[in-house]
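hey so i finally got around to running both of the ones u sent me last week. sorry it took forever, my laptop kept dying halfway thru and i had to restart like 3 times lol. anyway pasting them below in the order u listed, first the sequence line then the structure token line for each. didnt double check formatting much so if smth looks off just lmk and ill redo it

first one:
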Amino acid sequence: MKQWEQYFRKVVPYVPGEQPNQPGMIKLNTNENPYPPSPKVKKAVEEFKTDNLRLYPDPASTVLTEALGMAYGLKNEQIFVGVGSDDVLATAFLTFFNSKEPILFPDITYSFYEVWAALYNIPYETLPLKEDFTIRKEDYYRKNGGIVIANPNAPTSLSLELDAVRDILEHNRESIVIVDEAYVEFGGESALSLLKEFENLLVVQTFSKSYSMAGIRIGYAFGAPSLIKALNDVKYSYNSYTMNQPSLYYGAEAVRDGEYHKEIIERIMKTRARTAESLRELGFAILDSRTNFLFAAHREVPAEIIFNKLREKKIYVRYFNKPRIDNYLRITIGTDEEMAVFIDAVSGIIKTSILTNH
């Protein structure tokens, strides 16, 4: 080892979902939206003046925060935006979790939480979900340096009731509680209504799922002005210009098209229900999804076998080789046509596997 290497910051990085690029593939492994962004976004792309790229973007991201404020009934000083919700969450970890007490989050949840905690030297504890993968809210009634809850949770797809979120907040008024709502539009209940009650609440959402804009990288957070100021103070201390000009304008146009946003969400939820029913008929146990994906386990055929057989057919789903969830597949909801091909492929795999004893 070279002398300087001993001073490297070493961390086990987050491993994102596989990003294959093959002709004729069906990609159901990274929870992307199968439909295009709003037509208003397409128009904004076509009309964007590239000459403006010679100028720095607005550090306050005003055009986007104003659009979000209008859509959600909030003031600009209650809104923070960043380069995807990962950037927003990472900034929140860096800003708020500086206690000697451990932060708390579930043992089965978004795996980036552990990475950020390790990166920033934040002590943390993971609290086991119950056997049915639900949160035991009473586990969070204890001293801590902060709490992070993905609601709905990934990869389990389950949503915690708003009353339970309120109870956790009631028992933790001295800690920052982050509710990560990347999937909330697909059937969850947002904690946004609790902002007036709790100044220690930060609600984080994203454009990557329901707005069909994973490739543009926009995330945002809602909270008390004091929390948003603290986030901006940290942001401005390392990069004032985190949001590029096109992202700001395209994001604002997406938010303004509420009708299209609602239409796409409803379409995905209907496809989700049909796909879940088809999978149950094939012998799968399906959790009650409030996301744009399903978390499914077959009663006879191991998940890893189904995962590998689907890959051979260029159909990609997510498999987690981890304790407690290593017999589950996470299946993103695609178009009706994609899900029909997926179900047909899974049906064949199940029948063949059972006949040949896997």
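and the second one:
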Amino acid sequence: MSTKKDYSVETLRGFAIILVVMGHVIGSGSDGGMKVADDSGWRHLYFTFEYLRMPLFTVISGWVYALRPVSLEKYKAFTTKKVRRILYPMVFVGTAYFLLQYIVPGTNKTGNLAEIWKIYVFPYTLYWYLPSLFWVFLAVGLLDAFKRLDKFGHWAIWTAVAFALLLVRDMVIPEASPNYLSYKGGIYLFPFFMIGVGIQRFKGFFGNVWLNRALAVVFIAGLAIQQLGWFDIIQYNLDKKSGMGLLIGVTGTILFFRLKWKIDWLIYFGSFAYSIYLFHSFGTAAGRIVLKSMGISQDIPIFLFSLAVGMFAPILAEKILDRWGWTRMLFLGRSYAPPKKVDATPKPMTRRVV
């Protein structure tokens, strides 16, 4: 079944991946990325989009998945495909990044080679997202296989369950407990993925004008509280696990889907979003190291150059890796054989001779 692309969603995907790369250029803390101070304007920029980056990426994934629901007969094949699409790159791209940090001088973190096995069992830098999303695909695919998401009532119940699981994770599961295969991240992503499924399947509900006006009020109020908390004007928990962070993420991602923007250059980056996600850390690190080796230490040129390399280097990497079956499969998560090109040239009509 061929599905026509929605270019407003592709625009959103491009916007989301730029936010992700920007975040990793800056770094989540003063010991990563550009190593900026925790009270700097750069950290404020990182913090402003913290509640929207991965939630938006995940809502888009849920929306795209919902275009092709899984049947019980195809669940095994669906799982096998997700192993290839998600876990193969997790292992091979993650290993390459670990070895890069170990070998190349000037990277922010150098791991212990004897502990490389941990990157396959526990969350590893930005690649925590891959096993987390894999668990979500398995869970939602199973619900779809048993027709538990085909009606609005069913979807609403399971979305409520997803939010309840997130509450259990934050209030019951100890922070120090081992996060095997990033299952805690999967619990975090689950409700956002379900929202994406709902936006695609229940357009009447999510298109309600009054609902969207209410979401806009909550979203703007949440952003205001977030910013006032940053500047210490009010007392506010800046942690991503705070209820306000979840509220901003939920309302913001739904509202972004209502914008229906179609911007060509964002659509272009959106078409390479997965490869950019997989390989942008190689580019951002290289950009930062190159400029510092040239004696350039100012934040603005480092940010802009690292962002540019982080966006374009993965596109080049995809084009190179896609040439060979084994690299296409292991590093991009695609099938070993490239899809056959369909000849759309009209063929002349011929008369059948009996």
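quick thing i noticed on the 2nd:
The first helix runs from residue 7 to 26.
anyway thats it, ttyl
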